[in-house]
Amino acid sequence: MPQTSEAIFETRLRARVCIQAHLVFDTAWRIGSGKEGETLSDLGVLLDVAGRPVLPGSSLKGRLRSTCESVAHALNLTACMLDHEATGCNCVSDVKYYHRVREEYRSACRSGLQQRLRWINQHTCAVCKLFGSPVMAGRLRVGDGKLQDWADLVQVRDGVVIDRDSQAAVNVLKYDYEVVPPGARFEIQIDLDNPTDADQALVGAALFEWHAGSTVGGFTSRGLGRFHLENITLRGVDLSDPKQRVRFLTRTRPEERLEDLGDWERYFSERIEAQVRRPEGGPGK
Fold first, then answer.
1. HSE, side-chain direction, 13 A CA sphere, residue 102
2. Per-residue pLDDT tens for 182-222?
3. pLDDT for 244-273, tens place per residue?
4. Rounded distance, CA 190 to CA 208, Å?
5. HEC string for the chain
6. Are the beta carbons of 127 and 72 closer than 8 angstroms?
7. Fewest CB within 10 A of the end CB: N or C in the chain?
């Protein structure tokens, strides 16, 4: 394949997988606003203009990345953890490692598109291939959660500063912080563009973890932010199929543009099992 054609093949949209689910908080939770709260508490929660809690896509994506990193080794996949020295993984997402090999990358760029793509593939871990790195865009997108239901109030809790040496509360350093009560429900969506088998195995394993229960937000070590997933649905499109391509390009309703991929547990279980059977470092197609 000519170099230009290969580059076009790598960048054009060929397939998409869309995951939708309801994220339900089992405990109180908080995404901090970084300023005083609406209740005049010291640490407010992030609210929209209507006073409703916000679940940012950035928080969800960060938690999803952390989950993928924790299960990558079980799938025989690499995860740099953004630390080359700690993991021994050659990935340019580690700033120190990238600075060390930057001239090598520039040389690969001067050698042509094919050499550049090969170099990026060799110097990017499986997790960063999915979520993105300084030299390549990610294949995964996570939108803000869409609020479906909540208690319509914000609670205030007290906290104290603990001296790490004496393990006792510091005098006059009491504070309070806002939390959203349990039961809040959000609709979330995760999109994968041109996902490889390894990408789908990683995200699938993370979905199983989230379905069983995980945490997101601040103060999780204090018991906040526990959630689980419900009503997971899976849709997708393969643009190499002419019928699916026409449907994707001509329909206006999101649910009509993508094909139903069936039961999410079966779909991802097949890809996880296939990835586990591959040798370590074998990312799949």
1. 8
2. 999 999 999 999 999 999 999 999 999 999 999 999 999 99
3. 999 999 999 988 999 999 999 999 999 999
4. 14
5. CCHHHHHHHHHCCCEEEEEEEEEEECCCECCECCCCCCCCCCECECECCCCCECCCHHHHHHHHHHHHHHHHHHHCCCCCCCCHHHHCCCCCCCHHHHHHHHHHHHHHHHCCHHHHHHHHHHCCCHHHHHHCECCECCCEEECCCEEEECCCCCEEEEEEEECCCCCCEEEEEEEEEEEECCCCEEEEEEEEECCCHHHHHHHHHHHHHHHHCEECCCCHHHCCCEEEEEEEEEEEEECCCHHHHHHHHHCCCHHHHCEECCCHHHHHHHHHHHHHHCCCCCCCC
6. yes
7. C
- Across the range 83-99, mean pLDDT stands at 93
Q: What pLDDT, on the 0 to 100 scale, is given for residue 134? A: 92
CB within 8 A of 265, min separation 6: which ones? 208
Distance (Å, whole) CA 45 – CA 77: 36
Structure-model confidence comparison of residues 191 and 112, the more confident one: 191
User: Residue 283 has what pLDDT?
Assistant: 52
pLDDT, averaged across the chain? 90
Q: How far is CA 185 from CA 44, 54, 118, 227, 284, in A?
A: 20, 11, 43, 9, 35
Bridge partners (DSSP) of residue 189 are: 20
Residue found under tokens 């405990």: 27
Q: Which CATH class is domain 14-34+46-77+134-152+180-277?
A: alpha beta
Q: Where are the domains of the chain?
A: 14-34+46-77+134-152+180-277, 80-124
Residue 12: CB atoms within 10 A of its CB come to 10
Instruction: Retrieve residue 279's tokens.
Output: 């040798």
Quote the percentage of the chain above a pLDDT of 90. Answer: 78
